[in-house]
Amino acid sequence: MNAVWHPVRPSGLAVLQAAREGGYAVAAFNAVNLETAEAVVQAAEAQRAPVILQFSQNAARHAGLAQLAALGLSLKAGAAVPVILHFDHAESAGVALQAMRLGFEGVMLEGDDPALLRPLAAMAHAGGGYLEAEYEVVVKGERRGERHDPALLGHFAQESHCDLLAVDLGSAHKQEDKSAQLDFGRLAALAAATSLPLVLHGASSVPEGELARVAREGVAKVNLATDLTLAFTGAVRDSLHQGAKDPRSYLHAGRSAMQARAEEYIKLLGGAGRA
Ligand SMILES: [Zn+2]
Predict the structure, then answer these.
(1) Measuring CA to CA, which residue among 150, 197, 162 is closest to residue 22?
(2) Is 265:52 a contact under the CB 8 Å cutoff?
(3) How far is the CA of 223 from the centre of ligand 1 (A)?
(4) Torsion 200-203-205-211 (CA) sign
């Protein structure tokens, strides 16, 4: 039997730490099914970039957590670039743990209670993975939180044992226009408080010209969902209007459009050529 060659890949956390140190960001794209996940991986391959393929708990409600884990692991195994499989917006420690057991390398848990985060971080580290904590809530419908003192971020990181820190810089989830006004003074204070990678949620709401600056100044993971969804759905809608009937035809159109948009974001964030 021939040995199968597996390239040695850096851990997801090592990829993100290299990004923080190097002044660029790893794009974290949300997928919900086969075609959207393929769009993410193919964009990363085309740009020779490491990428985070993430599925949210909302996506798991649609497609099944185990099914999405299997899909992600299969695409990761066949990818020509590092693909970090991440579970986004876990709403409970139980689901977060389930995701880790299914093979998600990284997990984000909603909430900022160090007592809840610590044991979960220990589980993630035992498996070679990482935990993303929500130091601050980025507005999402009814979910809105208070901003904390940036100077306390380092203390929170030590207390929670978390590896990545989601912070509120003024972006918003599910916002279709790019009118968010980021607070770069706040970002500087947060970045000074910890050397850990910071995470920007709701990045579709951010003017594109500001993404490179965000990446240079301490944000190493940039979550993008809404804008890619719009690209995918717009192309599917056009394809259907043109009379497409076979799902392979309109899903192909959606995948291609989403891949093109993802490639633009990878370039904006400075990730191209890093893999
Ligand atoms: Zn988010």
Answers:
(1) 197
(2) no
(3) 7
(4) positive
**Domains along the chain with CATH numbers:** 19-268 (3.20.20.70)
Alpha carbon of 88 to ligand 1 centroid (Å): 7
Q: Comparing 148 with 249, which gets the higher pLDDT? A: 249
User: Can you give the pLDDT at residue 10?
Assistant: 85
Q: Could you give the dihedral angle defined by the CA atoms of residues 253, 254, 260 and 261, in that order, rounded to the nearest 10 degrees?
A: 150
Q: How far is the CA of 89 from the centre of ligand 1 (A)?
A: 6
Question: 């035992």: which residue's tokens?
Answer: 126
Of the chain, the percentage scoring pLDDT greater than 90 comes to: 92
CA 239 to ligand 1 centroid distance, Å: 29
Question: For residue 93, is pLDDT > 90?
Answer: yes
Tell me the CA–centroid distance for residue 56 and ligand 1, in Å: 9
Residues, beta carbon < 5 Å, ion ligand 1: 201
CA of 30 to the centre of ligand 1 (A): 10
> Residue 6: pLDDT band by 50, 70, 90 thresholds?
low
Give residues with Cβ within 8 angstroms of 248, minimum separation 6.
none
Q: Report the mean per-residue pLDDT for the chain.
A: 95
3-state secondary structure of 54: strand
Residue 222 clears pLDDT 70, i.e. is over it: yes
